[in-house]
Amino acid sequence: MDAKGLTKRFGSLTAVDDVKLQIPEAAIYGFLGPNGSGKSTTIRMLCGLLTPSAGEVEVLGFRVPGQAEEVKLHIGYMTQKFSLYEDLTVEENLRFLAAVYDLPRSDLKQRIDRALEQYWLTEQRKQFAGTMSGGQKQRLALAGATLHRPRLLILDEPTSAVDPQSRRDFWDILFELVEQGTTVLVSTHYMDEAERCHNLAILDRGRLVAEGRPRDLVRDIAAGVVEIETDSPKQARERLEATEGVHSVAQLGTRLHALTDKTIADPAELIRQALKDADIDSEVENVVANLEDVFVAATRLNDQEGSRADAA
Ligand SMILES: Nc1ncnc2c1ncn2[C@@H]1O[C@H](COP(=O)(O)OP(=O)(O)OP(=O)(O)O)[C@@H](O)[C@H]1O
């Protein structure tokens, strides 16, 4: 699956700006970015649900926008909003969807039995969808989105409304689908979900700012990463934000993470010295980056390039 020059403008807003992607089949491809960065718009253009302002997509052997109608037959789509009928039972919801997809009646019972089993809903078969837990609703939505066995599954922030255990269960099911050959596109702002994707695109204000396997992104981060433990996080943060060579400081749990310029040989030493000069007690060490650091570094770099371009 390939996209070139993918662009979407809504009036004067460029929601997606010249994005180029190569997405492997039978794998999970994640889109990570803040609200409004263009994740949904990109995904919807990739699967033919939205016509691009410019650019081309080749998906499942079809060209988009030209063959968008053909692509739609092969996709399953699920959003964070529960889109099934709360006053129908689990089974009735699936039967209804089967009719919408125009699935053959001959093997419908087997198909539904299999879906209930695969999505752990057999016991809820006769239960009204509206009375189920968040995790069960979400599994039902996924069962519905995959009932016609799509080759491409689109998940737009699918786990926003569920607890961590349900999220893990949901991802176990996704990995099974991938083993059966499904390609999955998923948008998220959860770092733990992003880490589970085979590949990841980081978007910021419509632009693709980083792309690759999560572990490569973490390894190749274009910044030094320093972890700081201190009883005075606020003062430390203010001091470091004013220190030359420090690009950003973020609070991660009880610690601070500082990103330093990639030209600095020993980032921890720079930070240690700056905090010592300000009489702030701290423990400081160079650490391996996590995806949150990658995200901050990528979006930060984009900012700096943006302001250089503005100044030019
Ligand atoms: N149909 C539309 N008309 C006008 N503007 C739109 C439309 N759809 C999206 N946008 C704008 O495009 C930008 C990107 O939106 P998009 O929904 O793709 O972002 P996102 O990264 O998926 O955000 P979120 O995480 O909040 O879902 C936003 O500024 C949004 O307001």
TrEMBL record:
Origin: domain of life: Bacteria
Q: Which InterPro entries match?
A: AAA+_ATPase (IPR003593), ABC_transporter-like_ATP-bd (IPR003439), ABC_transporter-like_CS (IPR017871), P-loop_NTPase (IPR027417)
**Which parts of the chain are coiled coil?**
none
What SUPFAM superfamilies does the annotation carry? P-loop containing nucleoside triphosphate hydrolases (SSF52540)
The family database entries (CDD domains) matched by this protein are listed as: ABC_DR_subfamily_A
Q: Which SMART domains match?
A: AAA
GO MF terms on file? ATP binding; ATP hydrolysis activity
Keywords on record: ATP-binding, Nucleotide-binding
According to the entry, every stretch annotated as the ABC transporter domain falls at 1-230
Keyword Nucleotide-binding carried by entry = yes
Q: What is this protein called?
A: ABC transporter ATP-binding protein
